[in-house]
Amino acid sequence: MRRAACLALVFALGAACAQAEGVTSARYGDPTGRYDHGILGDAVEYGTLELTTDAGRRLRIVLPESRVFEDTAPRVVDLDGDGQGEVIVVETDIRRGARLAIYGVGGLIAATPNIGRTHRWLAPIGAADLDGDGALEIAYVDRPHLARLIRVWRFSGGTLELVGELPGYTNHRIGEDTIAGGIRNCGTGPEMIVADAGWRDIYAITMKKAGVFAATRIGAHEGRGSFAGALGC
Fold first, then answer.
1. Which of 56, 95, 130, 190 is 20 to 30 A from 164 via CA?
2. pLDDT confidence tier of residue 19, bands split at 50, 70 and 90
């Protein structure tokens, strides 16, 4: 369930929170240099998340000075199957590092714990029902330049539960302004497309049930074209 509170929401059209609304598009706004990580190739992050709803309203979620959106772009996904979109973002606390967060028209819905220290980041892979249980999972690479750890969280009942971890894979290199790979479905179910920790090969990772993974080598890593080919089946 969405939170009823409208904390940190600024309503561009001046209306009360509407729980029946969903998000149709989202973007980051208010570029800021208040966080000096620069993991995506520059020193600019974002202070606000700007939402457009299916009712035509425009909303702004404004972070405090201690946090930024440290991300390439927000991702609009219907996570709970109600036909209304939620937004997946990477949100970083300047002291405690990144976390994956989910926002809706009522504000923050759920979030993972922060990694725990400054200059520590995560790179989303995507969202899908990875194990076929009817609930969506959200996957990311925790510290893609250090830990290189896939973490999978199940979203159900408005909360996130950690259901699996797999070390040895990555999807980002320091200074790149995009995140590689993603999730594909070539007819046999969703697969996470990532590189091995040494950027030698591209792999398709499946999760048949919580914590049980299978990795299939697709081919050698030869640049971003290798990911495009893998995602295209």
1. 95
2. low
